[in-house]
Amino acid sequence: xxxxxxxxxxxxxxxxxxxxxxxxxxxxxxxxxxxxxxxxxxxxxxxxxxxxxxxxxxxxxxxxxxxxxxxxxxxxxxxxxxxxxxxxxxxxxxxxxxxxxxxxxxxxxxxxxxxxxxxxxxxxxxxxxxxxxxxxxxxxxxxxxxxxxxxxxxxxxxxxxxxxxxxxxxxxxxxxxxxxxxxxxxxxxxxxxxxxxxxxxxxxxxxxxxxxxxxxxxxxxxxxxxxxxxxxxxxxxxxxxxxxxxxxxxxxxxxxxxxxxxxxxxxxxxxxxxxxxxxxxxxxxxxxxxxxxxxxxxxxxxxxxxxxxxxxxxxxxxxxxxxxxxxxxxxxxxxxxxxxxxxxxxxxxxxxxxxxxxxxxxxxxxxxxxxxxxxxxxxxxxxxxxxxxxxxxxxxxxxxxxxxxxxxxxxxxxxxxxxxxxxxxxxxxxxxxxxxxxxxxxxxxxxxxxxxxx
Length: 454
Known about the structure:
OMP_efflux; Cobalt-zinc-cadmium resistance protein CzcC; efflux transmembrane transporter activity; alpha+beta; four-stranded antiparallel sheet; single chain; MdtP/NodT-like
């Protein structure tokens, strides 16, 4: 603020703000808006890697599976431990008179020791269950990555579709101006009407795309455990990496890399331990204990008067219900057989699914290269040639519209192929457990990974 110099004899009037509260209100709103924007990085910069990292840390379903895994690991210590000891107390409602005195109450302490091999079998069952829970967590994370990548790709495709449609609207508006100029010069009015029809069609498409923006954002926000209306910018880019993978190589590595097959394999292993545990349930458990009986003084003078007896005890359960034991073993055996069939079935269907995804990748790659290298440049050239021919009066306007529609179709198909390629890579990662989504690996073609977007 510049200083005010008051000359002698001059009256200075201080400026008055007619709405003093408005300035403070505007300042507070600006600070609040800036705080909200800068505290939420997705409001200004949305990348696939950032979305994947945020989802891994905040998705409630993934966190639930993670805690189930950790709970299963803690259960191992529970299963391998001895049962809790038993403390007993007995009170005689009528004293038992003995030579050494009257017995009034008794105390007992006992500990059960499971039969040979039972604790080790229970530990093995719990350990394989925990390992399967770990595989389930890995699979849930891959499923989450697939959901995030799909929503991200669809949102990017929506962004590019909107931009392309807006560009075509500007093009048709320019063409309409040319048609109007020629109409004023005596040309037919049909080109003007054709341009207006095409403009209306494109504007309707743009309205649909704009209306779809909020549902698409809500879908990605839900996957990231954010409110549906949370600010979310357009995706910054669509990462592209060409993938070359041999289905036979992937199939051989599935037993090592696929969390789904690993979970099923652990289920088979767990069933085997359950069979051994069921067989060992036929062995008896032993219980060792000690009892103390409180004894009062004898009514007559005798040796050991009032001496409290101490009794050692040993117990054994009798697993004599052989039908129940046989049924327990048979039940565990059936579960193992079912787990083996499930594993065998998934190995076959997984191989077929991988081959289908590899086809999608090859098909998307072909389309990306075809549209980028051949069809789009030719369609652009065709549109420019038709435009110059129309302006020179050598071409019908409908031919220009057809050229514009063809270029629009090719541009959208190219963006659709890019989105499908990312989704297919996420699906391949989800099936194999190998990261084809964000990181380079030995299956990728390094010659074609120089840029993120083709």
